Amino acid sequence: MKSLTRSRAATVSALALVLSVGMAAGCGGDESSGGPEDAFVGYWFAESTTTGFTMTCTDADFTPLFPPGMNQFPIFGALKFEHGELTDLAETSGSCNLLNYDIKGDTASVVNPDPYVTGTNNTASCLFSFAVSDAGYPLSAAVLLTPDVSWTVKRLPEKTANGGDRLQLAGTATARIAVDDGTGTGNAIISNPDCTYGGMDTFFRLTRP
Question: Which of 14, 103, 113, 138 has its CA 20 to 30 A from that of 149?
Fold first, then answer.
């Protein structure tokens, strides 16, 4: 990754701009509402130790991080839904800070624009931090995930073998990735064009409202 600085490096202020989007958090609302939110509220864990979500990048700087066939990329190992204040639900697991949802029937969809973000740059998004390695040297990285309209959480009619509730997270999102360029100057390399994140995972519920 250090060699990439000669071709494209962003300033730390540009990195800060990328990382500042999508950080607004929903506040807990009436936790005893007894409404449709209660079908989603609780702590949910992924049913598989692997993920069905993949990261796909056409930017030559980032394709080596997520090569075809080896591009599974887990972000949501668990989901925690709470009653929202301005939306039906807030997903507060901390996996990707933070997305807010409204419910229609058995499906919850991301609210867009994000009602917690003021101004023109209020597209619903969340931030996930991770690390990469360049010749054994660890580099900090982050991805700004911006879901499209396909991104939903759906209650599944099928129960677990022991009778527990299940749901499905599915959809695609734009993924803007920023990686420290490894020079120690605070510069970062930012995906251009952005990557695509998408797939499907199922979860079982551990706790209820």
Answer: 14
